[in-house]
TrEMBL record:
Gene3D superfamilies: Cytochrome c1, transmembrane anchor, C-terminal, NAD(P)-binding Rossmann-like Domain. It catalyses: UDP-alpha-D-glucose + 2 NAD(+) + H2O = UDP-alpha-D-glucuronate + 2 NADH + 3 H(+). It comes from Algoriphagus hitonicola. It comes from the Bacteria. The keyword Oxidoreductase applies. Pathway: Nucleotide-sugar biosynthesis; UDP-alpha-D-glucuronate biosynthesis; UDP-alpha-D-glucuronate from UDP-alpha-D-glucose: step 1/1. Catalyzes the conversion of UDP-glucose into UDP-glucuronate, one of the precursors of teichuronic acid. Its EC number is 1.1.1.22. NAD(+) binds at residues 11-16, 36, 41, 92-96, 133-134, 167, 278-281, 348. PANTHER family: UDP-GLUCOSE 6-DEHYDROGENASE, UDP-GLUCOSE DEHYDROGENASE/UDP-MANNAC DEHYDROGENASE. This is UDP-glucose 6-dehydrogenase. Keywords: NAD, Oxidoreductase. GO terms for biological process: glycosaminoglycan biosynthetic process; UDP-glucuronate biosynthetic process.
Amino acid sequence: MRPTKNICCIGAGYVGGPTMSVIAQKNPSIKVTCVDLNESRIKAWNNENLDNLPIYEPGLAEVVAEARGRNLFFSTDVDKAIDEADMIFISVNTPTKTYGEGKGMAADLKYIELCARQIARVATNDKIIVEKSTLPVRTAEAVKSILDHTGNGVNFQILSNPEFLAEGTAIQDLQNADRVLIGGENTEDGKLAMQELVNIYASWLPKDRILTTNVWSSELSKLVANAFLAQRVSSINAISELCEVTEADVQEVAKAIGKDSRIGPKFLNASVGFGGSCFQKDILNLVYISKSLGLNEVADYWEQVIIMNDHQKNRFARKIVKTLYNTVADKKIAFLGWAFKKDTNDTRESAAIYIAEKLLHEQANITIYDPKVKEHQIFSDLEYLGTLDPEIIKQRVRVVNDPYLAMDQAHAIAILTEWDEFITYDWRRVYDKMVKPAFVFDGRGITDGLNLEKYDFQVFRLGKSITTNKG
Ligand SMILES: NC(=O)C1=CN([C@@H]2O[C@H](COP(=O)(O)OP(=O)(O)OC[C@H]3O[C@@H](n4cnc5c(N)ncnc54)[C@H](O)[C@@H]3O)[C@@H](O)[C@H]2O)C=CC1
Ligand SMILES: O=C(O)[C@H]1O[C@H](OP(=O)(O)OP(=O)(O)OC[C@H]2O[C@@H](n3ccc(=O)[nH]c3=O)[C@H](O)[C@@H]2O)[C@H](O)[C@@H](O)[C@@H]1O
């Protein structure tokens, strides 16, 4: 096996872009080319102005500035990059299927299959294929079958190398990963291929953080890691509802249980519901796999994490309507935040979309401010739901670049993303300009230290009792 000199990554999205940037930064002697079919995305990756990169991620621009043009390249010429590469990462999207068998649950693997077929058609020398996308367990079998049956005598080694970065902290997560997982075949060639990939990560990570396993454990571990993380959020969110009716305080409960080193303090922030492109998709996939194997109790167990998450989003929207005297019709509701979490411009499956949907069905007017999400994205998220009349969206939704404008003359504010800047606002000024009583619905637990009640705001905080919430 030749030492890896040339890497290609198919898919320049939230995973491919940052991951390849860090691999290139840390391995200056390896040429890394990230390719994508999406021309405007590649154009943005190549934009001279680093503020215009297609993805907002703290620290990303600096890494791109260091490596781009040196050993990091972004291109739409997929065939050329495949042909030149010793190692090919597949980092394309694997969304939930929207059609046919497994609709609404199974992962849609059509993009993966297209990549495998393209590699098989173009490759003329031996290559290591790395599954970076999140895939159902045993997908490597299908990828290998396509490569072996349509290829031209070329040998392929398939590795599974799932990505564990979280958006908003992607660069930090890549540069200082808790672990890197590499699954491969237990054969001489399989071990050599794994070693090639270990070497790439070992250029910046300690060896004991690089785990090697069989392919199936690696594929399954990715789904399981996301399922466990999401389960923690649903667990604390379930407790938040209980706190609201028992005068317990969810933040105090989270702190108290998190101090137990067996439980740990992370991922215990009660919220308006988890979002993002992966938790829901990956759990549904796990549920689908379990069901397909006849493991109904296993499937039901994990599905409950999603049911709880839907409940949390619904009850937050209902709380707004109920508190505003059972009607939000023609009232102005200001949204602070649209992204699914802070420090990212990604809005996929963001809870804000579903809260907006419910309030629009109740004929509310919504004005949205998010520091990093663009207006066209917000409108496209709402239209994509397919449940709202496009005319209603146009009439009732406004997106603004100034948070004070969003809150001016509002009946209520809904805090849906935990952006740091929200707590720096002049809340006296906000209060003065709102319709009274001025309501705040804090879906992220960020207003505790602000004592908004001193300005006479009526505040609802998730997971706080009625008494704490002052009615
Ligand atoms: N977003 C995240 O935080 C994480 C995502 N993942 C997984 O990584 C995978 C990719 O996710 P994202 O980067 O978020 O998706 P994304 O949608 O941001 O990027 C995927 C890119 O692949 C491109 N693409 C699709 N088919 C192609 C083809 N045949 N040739 C060339 N380009 C093609 C698309 O145009 C798109 O730009 C998914 O399987 C996801 O589950 C894993 C860990 C974290
Ligand atoms: O496979 C993936 O895509 C990735 O999914 C998650 O990362 P991500 O979705 O980017 O972001 P998280 O930080 O996990 O947050 C997910 C959602 O849970 C919410 N959350 C998180 C933590 C918490 O305590 N409470 C809470 O409501 C966040 O606000 C967000 O809406 C995992 O954390 C990553 O390890 C994984 O690689």
